[in-house]
Predict the 3D structure of the following.
Amino acid sequence: MSIPNNIIQYKSCFNFKDVSSNPYTFFFEALSFSKLNLWKDSFSYDISGDELKYNYKNMSKLLINLNKSLKGNLNMYGRSFSKNDLVLGNLYLYYIQFISNYLFGHPEAYEPFKNDDIIKKALFNSFESITDSFYEEEYLNRFLKENFLKENELVFNHLDIVEFNIKMPRFPIFFGLNQITIPETNWILKVLISDN
């Protein structure tokens, strides 16, 4: 059980060109955007104190908007995990297609995993950790400075990109007495910030 050699290469809607040497790293772009005004209204930078300032009311709105983008429909781009076409959907649907393809050689044999609580909980925890990280001052400061601090000013622009990595751990699946371990995977999600 592995990823086939003759896999499909998907194109990005937004011309992203990411690649990874890890065959278990996959790239996605959110099909809904994060709102530019929410980023601008949530964060500011005080140059005199070298300090980031947060507007928590607006940041809560931003996180709701960002969650909607991350949990909504995604477009896979780059190297797929299957030689067969995938069904467009959210990360949960892509992940159960991955498991199906890994176990059965076809992504559409995902019915046995559709309501799996272990998979749902693992994905829920991953999304929750993204949201939680925005409330961890050290992480958020680093994230904002690395991505948006330009010449001592926080700059959020139309079509800026935010990227998140969701790491799904290895876990066993049981078929009767047989145990098969699903490998650890990385799911890179990109969200465009838009003024629309």
Remarks:
- The helical segments are 36-42, 56-71, 91-104, 117-133, 137-148.
